[in-house]
Amino acid sequence: MNKVLLIDDDAELTTLLQEYLVEEGYDVVTDTDGRAAIAAAAGNTVDIIVLDIMMPRMNGIEVLQRIRKLSQVPVLMLTARGDDVDRISGLNLGADDYVPKPCSPGELAARLRAILRRAGQPAAGASTDTIRAGQLVLHPGSRIAEWRGESLELTGTEFSLLEVLARSAGQLVSKQDISKRAFGKPLTPFDRRIDVHISSVRQKLGLREDGQSWIQSVRGQGYQLLVD
């Protein structure tokens, strides 16, 4: 049973979501203070955190920033509908996904299942064999990544994206294909999730000797992982 920590100061919404998720088979703990999420991440006591951005004491963006210094536990952000700034900020800091409020319990449950699947299992249809692409080594079965002989810390979403690119290393992969293979769903118009997560992976890989990124983009088409 996956343990979910739900952080939100909206008591009515929290009760609704908790009751639904419990019926879906989750073990749900709630709190109204983001510091509880930081403690849970530090203690590795939950499988996933649902974190509202607009909270008293400490907002969700600051909480997420502190969590990512301690752990790669999956984090799903609850954002104000239409607030692209908060969404992009959350993704840039390592959030795995977001759901705009007000959200339906069914949508939240579906997003949780997708994130947990990416965090703990290989992508649908993928083998568990080791993937080698130049200096990158991925182990889909354990979700462990190595870069230049050292451990590479990735969120579940980042691993899934990099796995898709590594399986087609040296080839251009369209954003539509990336979305379907990494997330199991088609890309929707104006969805920048892939771009933001790719940007984070690029930073973790660093630059090539020629100063270029290891992940090249072709505007409007897709991305390519270089191997030499």
Task: Quickly describe the structure.
This protein is α/β, with parallel strands linked by helices and 228 residues long. The chain is 39% helix and 21% strand.
Map the helices and strands:
Blueprint: E1 3-7, H1 11-23, E2 27-31, H2 34-43, E3 48-52, H3 60-67, E4 75-80, H4 84-92, E5 97-101, H5 105-120, E6 131-133, E7 136-139, E8 144-147, E9 150-151, H6 156-167, E10 173-174, H7 175-183, H8 193-205, E11 215-218, E12 222-225
Parallel strand pairs: 1-2, 1-3, 3-4, 4-5
Antiparallel strand pairs: 6-7, 7-8, 8-9, 10-12, 11-12
Helix pairs in contact: 1-5, 2-3, 5-6, 6-7, 6-8
Structural overview:
- This protein has 228 residues and is α/β, with parallel strands linked by helices.
- It has 2 domains: 3-120, Rossmann fold, CATH 3.40.50; 131-225, Orthogonal Bundle (Arc Repressor Mutant, subunit A).
- It contains 8 helices and 12 strands.
- The strands form 3 sheets. A 5-stranded parallel beta sheet has the order 2-1-3-4-5, sandwiched between helices. Strands 6-7-8-9 form a 4-stranded antiparallel beta sheet, with helices on one face. A 3-stranded antiparallel beta sheet has the order 10-12-11.
- α4 links the parallel β4 (75-80) and β5.
- α1 (11-23) packs across α5 and α6 crosses α8.
- 35% of the residues are buried.
**CATH architecture verdict of the largest domain:** 3-Layer(aba) Sandwich
What is the helical fraction, as a range of percent?
A: 25-40%
Query: Would you list the SSEs in sequence order as H and E?
Result: EHEHEHEHEHEEEEHEHHEE
Overall strand count: 12
> Under the CATH scheme, which class of the largest domain?
Alpha Beta
Oligomer: single chain
